[in-house]
From TrEMBL:
GO terms for molecular function: L-rhamnose isomerase activity. This is L-rhamnose isomerase. Coiled coil: none annotated. The keyword Metal-binding applies. Residues 72-268 form the Xylose isomerase-like TIM barrel domain. It is an enzyme of class 5 (isomerase). Keywords: Isomerase, Manganese, Metal-binding. Its EC number is 5.3.1.14.
Length: 388
């Protein structure tokens, strides 16, 4: 059994990034439900991320989405984040919300549209440099709906060209994470539908291009931890967009639908030595809280990742390896399940007390009166972006 001090040290060093868009109003294509007290601009989203960090102690950065978080002065926003106790994390360019992008962005058949999309990616590289961000996080809504609609192969060439130009513009400290998604908004094919496509492009680009795994972007039943192990082994696991899915890209709270899957993923991370911040695997949340209050939902999500991580850290690796090596199928499985079935809430509560934060972050947030203050202060909260 790993000793408690080692488990706590690893949990204390863990970093989980929250996304700016989770703090704004969101919904489905049927309805956006407006909530009270939501942020009105990027500055207030930063404030909410800082609040989540204050109550959890392990969420010290916020991912931005451009143009949803566009501001006049990014240096000022960076300072605002610093003053609030956090920093700017991944920069997420948005090349999917304009009429020009009906047939795609960087894969569009029209070179003028491709140029416009590339210019936005390059602008985001600059924003990353100004904000001290080390991650350019790329997701393309590009794809086709009908067989024959466009050349699958030509679109790959266009994609490669844009990625290459973007990669070339990145400062040395910046990584490019390329996110894949099986379907939606395109239904016949997406241009980056799976880890293999992302990986192939990353290999061509260079060491600082890595695969981003959004847990909601796979076919039902996909073994995500296999992909995680494979990409880690290849040195190409850039990070995660954590969330839960029941059916499609549901973007529900991580660990809510399938805590066992999250544990299995974190087990591969721990075994692969990738929990260490030096391994540079970004643990980011990509969620929308359509009907539940946003800040406590984010706190809950951070705790869910922590709980899965704690269980993965409790796996008795020596016993596991011994069972594996001797072909003890049941023993190996039991080593994993023993850890999964451990109640890790007491050890996490202890850790939080040692860190000087409340052992029960959700209860502490409720008691703090922060939500009521936000409702009083903020009138007319902004929509996260979709349908805006
Ligand atoms: C879209 O499905 C991807 O998950 C994106 O990472 C992300 O949700 C988007 O950029 C935010 O709108
Ligand atoms: Zn995502
Ligand atoms: Zn998702
Ligand atoms: Zn998604």
């Amino acid at each position: 059994m790993t000793d408690t001090a080692t488990v706590k040290a690893a949990l204390r060093a863990q970093r989980i990034e929250t996304p700016s868009w989770a703090y704004g109003n969101s919904g489905t294509r049927f309805k956006v439900f407006a909530q009270e007290g939501v942020p009105r601009n990027a500055y207030e989203k930063v404030d909410d991320a800082a609040t989540v960090h204050r109550f959890t102690g392990v969420a010290p950065s916020i991912a931005l989405h451009i143009p949803w978080d566009r501001v006049d002065d990014y240096a000022e926003l960076t300072k605002h984040a610093g003053d609030a106790g956090i920093r700017i994390g991944a920069i997420n360019p948005n090349v999917f919300q304009e009429d020009d992008y009906r047939l795609g962005s960087v894969c569009n058949p029209d070179p003028i549209v491709r140029r416009k999309a590339l210019d936005h990616l390059l602008e985001c590289v600059e924003i990353g440099a100004t904000t001290g961000s080390t991650i350019l996080s790329l997701w393309f809504a590009d794809g086709t709906n009908y067989p024959g609609q466009d050349s699958i192969r030509a679109r790959q060439d266009r994609l490669a060209e844009a990625l290459e130009a973007t990669y070339a513009a990145m400062p040395g400290a910046m990584r490019m994470l390329l996110e894949y998604k099986l379907f939606e908004p395109s239904f016949y094919t997406m241009d980056v539908p799976d880890w293999g496509t992302s990986y192939a492009h990353c290999l061509q680009l260079g060491d600082r291009a890595q695969v981003l795994v959004d847990t909601g972007h796979h076919a039902p039943g996909t073994n995500i931890e296999f992909i995680v192990a494979l990409m880690l082994r290849a040195g190409r696991l850039g990070g995660f967009h954590f969330n839960s899915r029941f059916y499609a890209d549901d973007d529900l709270m991580v660990g809510a639908a399938d805590p066992f899957q999250l544990f299995r993923i974190m087990h591969e991370i721990v075994q692969g030595g990738a929990l260490d911040p030096a391994a540079d695997v970004a643990f980011m949340l990509d969620q929308c809280h359509n009907i539940e209050p946003k800040i406590p939902a984010m706190i809950r999500s951070v705790l869910n990742v922590q709980e899965a991580t704690a269980k993965a850290l409790l796996v008795d690796s020596d016993a596991l390896r011994a069972a594996q090596d001797s072909g003890d199928v049941l023993g190996a499985n039991a080593a994993l399940m023993d850890a999964f079935n451990t109640d890790v809430r007491p050890i996490l509560a202890e850790l939080r007390e040692e860190m000087g934060i409340d052992p029960d972050p959700i209860a502490a947030y409720r008691r703090s009166g922060h939500h009521e203050r936000l409702v009083a202060e903020r009138q007319g909260g902004a929509q996260a972006g979709w349908g805006a």
